[in-house]
Design brief:
The complex is a heterodimer. By secondary structure, chain A is α+β, with helices and mostly antiparallel strands. Chain A has eight helices and seven strands, in the order E-E-H-E-E-E-E-E-H-H-H-H-H-H-H. A five-stranded mixed sheet of chain A has the order 2-1-5-3-4. The model of chain A has no long low-confidence stretch (mean pLDDT 95). Chain B is of the alpha/beta class. Among the domains of chain B are: 132 residues, Alpha-Beta Complex (Flavocytochrome C3, Chain A, domain 1), CATH 3.90.700; 151 residues, Fumarate reductase/succinate dehydrogenase flavoprotein-like, C-terminal domain (Methane Monooxygenase Hydroxylase, Chain G, domain 1, Up-down Bundle). Chain B has a five-stranded parallel sheet. A five-stranded antiparallel sheet of chain B has the order 11-15-14-12-13. A four-stranded antiparallel sheet of chain B has the order 16-10-20-21. In chain B, helix 3 runs parallel beside helix 6, helix 4 crosses helix 5 and helix 10 runs antiparallel to helix 11. The radius of gyration of chain B is 24 Å and the shape is globular. The model of chain B has no long low-confidence stretch (mean pLDDT 95). The chains are: A alpha+beta, B alpha/beta. Chains A and B meet through helix 1, helix 2 and helix 3 of A and helix 3, helix 5, helix 6, helix 11 and helix 12 of B. The site of flavin-adenine dinucleotide has 44 residues of chain B, from helix 3, helix 6, strand 6, helix 7 and strand 15.
């Protein structure tokens, strides 16, 4: 099939970008979306033009590197599928395809479709961990964890940190990401000692990074390639109220 | 050069304990005076960087991705081994040790493997404490499964994403240290060279992948945890960015490269769909627990799988290896698939595929049970191929998956270059000629959490290194060399894309240094590689400039290194005329077509010394001594 691509091109963080159109002839339905871009890029390089820059690595839907908005939807039209796992059989001959980077104040564009998602790492650095040094741990079976809790924690931990939730949110909020990261640890018995502190710190960092507020659009859940449930946002809100009460906090660290 | 493995004296069981006791310690107050460079943030690098920072060292950690959490370890699906014996099924440190040495076809160092099995139990404890959500039984205890041909259930797992969950554990510990200011994290930074002063590794030179800036970093010790080099084949299950660059440049600065030809080909991957193929996707080995592998008996049988009656099918693994059947080890299963395809009995486009059929299992257990067990994997398969594996058999084919070879290290995980330590897949140490399933994650975390933090402290305590400043002429010189090389790549301005060279190299390696190797083929590869490399430097087209994010330039640097490294791999494969593990020399097989080792002549590690691009490298031998394991012909019949 033959597609027409409209791609966001931007040389670096300092310049302004624009949409540039390209032909993608000879697209096979067996190609992944990124392989289709590889072929287009190959053509650009042959002509001496700079190829379209995009983040990618595993191409298996797990590293969370790939990040592009395809026809208005983060990671494109297929449910629960990252851009690297999206295949061209989801498109048909003659389709026009718009490809843009994640758009959020907290994700500055680095080049073309590549953005800086360092803010997500900083939310984790602020409190998204259990403070246990190497070697200071009891036997693995010393802490029983009920299967239901373990499964629920695993549902939250399935987050691949791609940032599609932020890109999908009309407010560019990082609530689903933060909620998933916090819930993974807050649910487990090992995570209890730091539960309040963790919640407050992660939320404070999220606010400091300039992500927007959560106003329950739920677009994040629809875009999440790992189908992380927005129930975790409700849980984060509960944990936050609890933390504020316990720590006698007024006003700080509230979810706006 | 004599290679001293520095394996401690004493009985196998006591070596590590005694060694830990005999090692020198660094005073806690002094640790903050030392800086350690950690290149890589995967299971090995991430766990090491966090642990070293917890001890009090200053750590500078580097990765090429935009976040340390995206290291390729994230992609591991199946699980991690540990000799916990929670299942009471007869597992023990000794048994895990024995299985690993046997699985590696007796080409690994006993003392290292024993230590690996010993610390495996601590890894699970550590990960649980960090909050890794391992699978649990209803009673709340940890669940296990058997994996990759093991006869005990010692594999811990977290759904189909064990690698991601373990890596997130290490990443969280790392981020905690970043938050505390003990680790300085450099993302989108590629190590392009090692700086050696007076025979000691003293730092690295990196390229900032956003600005193009070439930078020097000095330290008291350098650690490489940069993963495997399977992408020398172009197509593999590795992430696109996996490379040999860091360890190859260290090799060119004097570090010996051990057993480079030992590569693992994984039997269950989705076959190539066309020329556009950019990587191969692994289908978890666990599928072999219920799927039956077969091809048509007749070559060229083009009927749809459902139309081929039982009598016309060859369940070749069940036929050849009745006791292990579809669960035979990776190297054996992979070779058997290649064999039937070479006979013209392969299925799917190009005839490079075999069926993995769930029809019997669905009949026996019902579709819902199969969905419960493998739902995610079936979905992934359908997403990629457009075929529904509940209705028709999957098609699978072997693909390059893991590299057992790597930089040579001693028992302390230090290379022959003083101060240069190598951990995880990047070193050669524990898997011999073939790695068992679920053992790479174990090794990466063993190295990073429980071995390196001790041994590197000993190194620092013994040598009391004095930090050299990056103003030292050695740094300036290496920086210049790196800058020149980058300019040279951009200046060629030829006609062929970087990828086209990479694909051509990959094909040479797959054809002549892949699943089956022989003298004539390897010599042919050694004839083909140098002109390809020469053409690359004459005709490659690298667009853009250095002072910018430039993915073509990044790829070009890596492919340039693969083009040099590939020759070393072929030299190693050519030298080793025996078959062992993943290295199959067609000249050396049993009457039944199985790999035939030559213990008398090849019970050694081949550690190669660099002598210049295109020159014959020099081999140094580390003889392997087996005191505890009896060398036997592997048999899985
Ligand atoms: C699809 C797949 C499934 C697997 N499943 C399993 C399994 O179930 N069980 C198991 O035990 N093993 C499995 N393995 C193997 C295992 O995942 C790897 O061997 C292991 O994770 C490697 O860890 P590592 O830390 O050594 O390297 P990696 O995780 O590859 O990390 C390498 C790090 O080095 C950095 N780096 C590399 N080069 C440079 C450079 N030049 N400059 C700067 N930084 C650099 C990278 O950014 C990265 O941070 C699997 C492998 C694959 C491909
Ligand atoms: S490239 Fe890793 S998730 Fe898409």
């Amino acid at each position: 099939m033959h597609l027409k691509l409209h791609v966001w091109r931007q040389a670096n963080a300092k310049t302004t970008g624009k949409i540039v159109s390209y032909d993608a002839p000879h697209v096979s339905p067996d190609m992944s979306f990124l392989e289709m871009l590889d072929v287009v890029n190959d053509g650009l390089v042959q002509k001496g033009e700079e190829p379209i820059a995009f983040d990618h690595d595993c191409r298996e839907g797990i590293c969370g590197a790939c990040s592009m908005v395809i026809n208005g939807i983060p990671h494109g039209p297929q449910r629960a599928t990252t851009a690297c796992q999206l295949h061209m059989r989801s498109f048909k001959d003659g389709d026009e395809v718009y490809i843009e980077p994640w758009r959020a104040v907290a994700f500055p564009i680095v080049k073309d479709l590549i953005v800086d998602r360092g803010a997500l790492d900083r939310i984790v650095a602020a409190g998204g961990f259990i403070s246990v040094n190497t070697g200071a741990s009891p036997d693995g079976n010393a802490i029983p964890v009920s299967k239901n809790i373990a499964e629920l924690a695993m549902d939250a931990a399935a987050c691949i940190g791609c940032g599609a939730c932020v890109a999908a949110c009309p407010n560019a909020s990082a609530m689903l990401f933060t909620a998933a990261k916090a819930a993974h640890l807050n649910l487990l018995p090992q995570g209890q000692p730091e539960r309040e502190d963790r919640t407050l710190r992660m939320v404070a960092q999220m606010d400091a990074e300039g992500f927007g507020n959560c106003t329950n659009y739920a677009e994040c859940q629809a875009a999440c390639p790992k189908e992380i449930d927005i129930q975790f946002i409700a849980k984060l809100n509960r944990d936050l109220i609890r933390a504020n009460l316990k720590q006698g906090n007024q006003g700080t660290g509230e979810v706006k | 050069m004599t290679l001293n493995s520095k394996v401690p004296e004493g009985p196998l069981e006591d070596k590590w304990e005694n060694h830990k006791f005999n090692m020198k310690l660094v005073n806690p107050a002094n640790k903050r005076k030392y800086t350690i460079i950690m290149v890589g943030s995967g299971l090995a690098g991430g766990s090491a960087a966090a642990s070293l920072a917890e001890l009090g060292y200053n750590v500078k950690c580097f990765c090429y991705q935009d976040s340390p959490r995206r290291a390729h370890s994230i992609a591991a699906q199946g699980g991690i081994n540990a000799a916990k014996n929670y299942q009471n099924d007869g597992d023990s440190v000794m048994r895990l040790f024995y299985d690993t040495v046997k699985g590696g076809d007796y080409r690994s160092r006993e003392a290292n493997v024993y230590r690996l099995a010993q610390v495996s139990v601590n890894i699970i404890d550590q990960c649980v404490a960090q909050g890794v959500p391992f699978a649990r039984e209803y009673g709340g205890v940890l669940a296990n499964r058997s994996f990759g041909g093991a006869q005990v259930s010692r594999t811990f797992y977290a759904r189909g994403q064990t690698g991601q969950q373990l890596l997130i554990g290490a990443y969280q510990a790392l981020e905690r240290q970043i938050g505390l200011g003990k680790v300085q994290m450099y993302t989108r930074s590629e190590m392009l060279d090692l700086v050696v002063v007076d025979g000691k590794a003293r730092g690295i030179v990196t390229r900032d992948m956003v600005t193009g800036k070439i930078e020097s970093h000095a330290a008291d010790a350098v650690v490489l945890g940069t993963g495997g080099y399977g992408n020398v084949f172009y197509l593999s299950t590795n992430a696109k960015g996996c490379n040999v660059t860091a360890i190859w440049r260290a090799h060119k600065r004097g570090a010996l490269f051990a057993n480079p030809c030992f590569t693992q080909i994984h039997p269950t991957c989705i076959p190539v769909a066309g020329d556009h193929q950019s990587k191969l996707t692994l289908m978890s080995e666990s599928l072999r627990n219920d799927g039956r592998i077969w091809v048509p008996k007749k070559a060229g049988d083009s009927r749809a799988p459902g139309d081929i009656p039982e009598g016309d099918r060859d369940y070749y693994l069940e036929r050849k290896y009745p006791s292990f059947g579809n669960l035979s080890p990776r190297d054996i299963s992979s070779r058997a698939a290649k064999e039937v395809c070479d006979e013209g009995r392969g299925v799917g486009p190009g005839g490079l595929g075999v069926y993995l059929d769930f029809a019997d299992a669905i009949k026996r257990l019902g579709e819902s049970t199969i969905r419960e067990r493998y739902g995610n994997l079936f979905e992934m398969y359908e997403r990629i191929t457009g075929e529904n594996p509940y209705k028709m058999p999957m098609r699978i084919y072997p693909a390059v998956h893991y590299t057992m070879g790597g930089l040579w290290v001693d028992y302390n995980l230090m290379s022959n270059l003083e101060g240069l330590h190598v951990i995880g897949e990047a070193n050669f140490s524990d898997h011999g000629a073939n790695r068992l399933g679920a053992s790479a994650l174990m090794q990466g975390l063993a190295d990073g959490y429980f071995v390196l933090p001790y041994t590197i402290s000993n190194y620092i305590a013994e040598t009391k290194p004095q930090t050299i400043s990056t103003d030292h002429p050695a740094f300036k010189q290496v920086e210049q060399e790196v800058a020149d090389r980058t300019s040279k790549l951009l200046a060629v301005n030829g006609t062929r894309t970087v990828d086209s060279f990479h694909k051509e190299l990959g094909k040479i390696m797959w054809d002549y240094c892949g699943m089956a190797r022989n003298d004539a083929g390897l010599r042919k590869a050694l004839e083909l590689i140098p002109p390809l490399r020469e053409e690359f430097w004459r005709d490659v087209k690298v667009t853009g400039v250095n002072a910018d994010l430039n993915q073509e330039l990044e790829k070009a640097g890596r492919v340039a290194d693969f083009l040099e490294f590939a020759e070393l791999m072929c030299h190693d494969a050519l030298m080793r005329t025996e078959s062992c593990g993943g290295h199959f020399r067609t000249e050396s097989q049993t009457d039944e077509g199985e790999a035939l080792r030559d213990d008398e002549n090849y019970t050694y590690v081949a550690a190669w010394e660099y002598t210049g691009v295109g020159n014959q490298p020099i081999m140094h031998k580390e003889e392997l001594e087996f005191e505890y394991v009896h060398l036997a012909q592997r048999s899985y019949k």
